[in-house]
Amino acid sequence: QVQLVESGGGLVQAGGSLRLSCAASGRTFSSYVMGWFRQAPGKEREFVAAISWSGRNTYYADSVKGRFTISRDNAKTTVYLQMNSLKPEDTAVYYCAAGLGGIRVGVSNEYDYWGQGTQVTVSS
């Protein structure tokens, strides 16, 4: 089993940056695909980014491509989401998730474990 704890959210002005972290427990962290999703009020949860177990492959939603960067440190069992050039529409609760095997990285139902989420608010 994997437990995930996000941190790093907060309030930032448009154009600013934040770095989210997701600390994972469990010895098998390096086996998991890790993803970030977000959910804004009144909206469905949406895919943001994902990274393969090795870190070699990364995937992004079109809305964040070029602004967000996902990375992982398997030795620290942590995945990161560097968010630059933030926009008010990036405001949401951000969740990290872990999934095993050949999952479709953009499909939330295919992830096995979820964190509790961290709030990101971008003011205009």
Q: Write down the secondary-structure element order.
A: EEEEEEEEEEE
Q: Which shape, going by the Cα principal axes? A: globular
Largest sheet: 7 strands, mixed
* Tally of DSSP helical segments: 0
- Spatial extent as radius of gyration: 13 Å
- Indicate the structural class: mainly beta
- Stretches with pLDDT under 50, minimum 5 residues: none
* Mean pLDDT over the full residue set: 95
Strand content: over 45%
Q: N-to-C terminal Cα separation, in Å?
A: 40 Å
Oligomer description: single chain
- In which range does the helix fraction lie? under 10%
Total beta-strand segments: 11
Give a quick precis of the structure.
The protein is mostly beta strands and 124 residues long. The chain is 0% helix and 48% strand.
Please give a structural write-up:
The chain is mainly β and 124 residues long. 0% of the residues lie in helices and 48% in strands. The strands form 2 sheets. Strands 2, 4, 5, 6, 9, 10 and 11 form a 7-stranded mixed β-sheet that branches. A 4-stranded antiparallel β-sheet has the order 1-3-8-7, with no helix packed on it. Strand 5 (46-51) and strand 6 form a beta hairpin. The protein is globular, with a radius of gyration of 13 Å.
Features:
7-stranded mixed sheet; single chain; 48% strand; mainly beta; 11 strands; globular; 4-stranded antiparallel sheet; 124 residues
Element layout with pairings:
Layout: E1 4-7, E2 10-13, E3 18-24, E4 33-39, E5 46-51, E6 58-60, E7 68-73, E8 78-83, E9 92-99, E10 113-114, E11 118-123
Parallel strand pairs: 2-11
Antiparallel strand pairs: 1-3, 3-8, 4-5, 4-9, 5-6, 7-8, 9-10, 9-11
